[in-house]
Amino acid sequence: TRRDGRRALATKPDEPEYGLGPPEGLLRNVGQVIFMDKPAAGSLVLLGLTIGDPYLAGLGLAGGATATVTARAVGLDEEATDNGLMGYNGVLVGCAFSQFLAVSPPVALAATVAGAAATAPLAAVLKPLCGRVPQWTLAFNAATLSALLYTRPFADSVPGPPATIDSTYELFNAVLDTPFVGVSQIFVVDNVVSGNIIALGLLVQQPSWAFHAVGGSAVGALTGLMMGAPLDEVLHGLWGFNSALTALSVAVFYEPSPQTYVLAGAGAAVTAVVFGGLKTALGAFAVPALTLPFCAVATGCYLLADHVPGLKLR
What we know:
By secondary structure, this protein is an all-alpha fold. The protein has 14 helices and no strands. The protein has helices at about 25-30, 40-50, 55-75, 80, 90-100, 105-130, 140-150, 170-185, 190-205, 205-225, 230-235, 240-255, 260-285, 290-305.
């Protein structure tokens, strides 16, 4: 696998120029959301999503497939397309629309197809604009927020009763479960079993990646608590998923070193702070922050390679 400022690429197979391509490419679409290029790892993520929310998993697959077909139809890089790099943003569009669009399934599917189709050419345009920095999930954020700014999914939301932890047993479960719920929230799923299976997929891809993702989620949750975030938001993983992505990106793109581990932890904490700010700012427009905090902080972490001794890109 290569680590040259792009996401993980596997060996390019001989595949047709148009259509969906090889079945394993659809699994790579899912896996590449969290940088994984092994179909087996992607299949575990898909299993986790299906357990957590079958409807979400279906729309996610549809989004990835649509982005793949679009990438092939407009002649984008075939190797990148085969390996899920043109499809993972489409997967996230489907996941997000399944949760944030209060419409019937056929309408949600149509919206997913339209939004996911836009992500492939958008990713290709963003790549040179981002220079040597990966474009992360910017295409997903742009396509999804374009729709959500119109529908304003949080416009009529009413806060529920505050969450409480009333026993040592509940505290113990919260400490164990919350980091994994944060991992599942990368895909907009709120399910601890899903989070554990997704972490298992990361373990299959590269064991240290699972540690960074779960650890980053835990750091984000702790940072949220220290900032006074509502307990229910923390327990549902909302303060952990962007931090998990940032810590994971550090593990993916940097050679292991003491400085890398410090950067992963610090980046996860900073990401939670940025999430708090963007959550408030975008909340004024009744939309979620999605993965914008991750994109912002991961870019800063990536650029530190030129300035901090001991940080070396792969």
